[in-house]
Specification:
The strands form 3 sheets. Strands 1, 2, 3, 4, 5, 11 and 16 form a 7-stranded mixed beta sheet that branches. The protein has a 5-stranded mixed beta sheet with strand order 8-7-9-6-10. The protein has a 4-stranded antiparallel beta sheet with strand order 13-14-12-15, covered by helices on one side. A hairpin with a 7-residue loop joins strand 13 and strand 14. About 30% of the residues lie in helices and about 35% in strands. By secondary structure, it is α/β, with parallel strands linked by helices. It comes from Candidatus Avimonoglobus intestinipullorum. Its EC number is 4.2.1.51. It catalyses: prephenate + H(+) = 3-phenylpyruvate + CO2 + H2O. InterPro entries: ACT-like_dom_sf (IPR045865), ACT_dom (IPR002912), Preph_deHydtase (IPR001086).
Length: about 280
């Protein structure tokens, strides 16, 4: 069973259905709840958003994986995102007094909101599906931003289709499990996270290992440790699998140079999937 951020109609639901079309799915109210359900053994896998091409990393996913659980990223799924302005059937543009959605779609449609709806109130929901339910129950004065699937599921209409800031908008979802993925492919990546002493050159010395071992770093992201200002967790993705001896020894040396180190997983790189490919 695979857990996802619900209710039905969210991008996470679309990702779960696209990733494993024949698997039983279970919805959860938050990303945190999905990850903790995997940790508790209530579900076999969770699929959670980890990065958007416009808004960047999904912080709750990164923080939960580092601070709260001992789980692994075993796979990834990339979903092409198309945001739409969705209204109750028959509602007109001039009726809209409030636009609601999950914070990610709100951020991904900032140009539309600032240029065309600058005088309209903006509200936030736990998911796009929650926003769709609110629009369906409204008098037509509330609109939402989200996937076409929400309009289909909750009998709503697209007022402005594909209204995101960028036409190329994708979200990368991480598949989370309790055990590592031991399958090696020709196109893998490895994710790690670590903390360092707050001393001059500590990050440079850590990253220099990748140059020394000719390892390509795909991404680096920092998040606060939360205990004090100026201390951070560094999340890094690199090309290759930890099964490769060069990567294994490089990460082993890196582990020795850190305050805390977490191997988050080696897994196959994903190809982008279109939202209209989801049934």
């Amino acid at each position: 069973m695979i857990g996802y951020l619900g209710p039905s109609g969210t991008f996470s639901h679309m990702a779960a259905a696209g990733y494993a079309p024949n698997a039983p799915l279970k919805e959860f109210p938050t990303i945190y709840a999905v990850i903790m359900a995997v940790q508790a053994g209530l579900i076999d896998k969770g699929i959670v958003p980890i990065e958007n091409s416009i808004e960047g990393s999904v912080n709750v996913t990164l923080d939960t994986l580092f601070f709260d659980v001992d789980l692994y990223i075993t796979d990834e799924y990339i979903l092409k995102i198309e945001e739409n302005l969705i209204v109750k059937p028959g509602a007109r543009r001039e009726q809209i007094k409030k636009i609601i959605s999950h914070p990610q779609p709100i951020g991904q449609c900032s140009k539309l909101l600032n240029h065309d709806f600058a005088d309209v109130e903006i509200g936030y929901t736990n998911s796009t599906a929650d926003a769709a339910k609110a629009v369906a129950a409204s008098d037509g004065s509330i609109a939402m931003l989200g996937p076409k699937k929400c309009a289909e599921l909750y009998d709503l209409e697209l007022l402005i289709p594909n209204c995101g800031d960028e036409l190329h908008n994708s979200t990368r979802f991480a598949v989370i499990e309790r055990t590592q993925n031991l399958h090696v492919t020709a196109s893998d990546k490895t994710s790690i996270a670590f903390t360092l002493n707050n001393t001059p050159g500590s990050l440079y010395q850590a990253l220099e290992l990748f140059k020394t071992y000719a390892i390509n770093m795909i991404k680096i992201e920092s998040r606060p440790v939360k205990k004090e200002l100026g201390t951070y967790v560094f999340f890094i993705d690199i090309d290759g699998n930890i099964d490769n001896a060069t990567i294994y020894f490089a990460l082993d040396k890196l582990r020795g140079a850190t305050l805390s180190f977490k191997f988050l997983g080696s897994y196959k790189k994903a190809q982008e999937s279109r939202p209209d490919a989801i049934s």
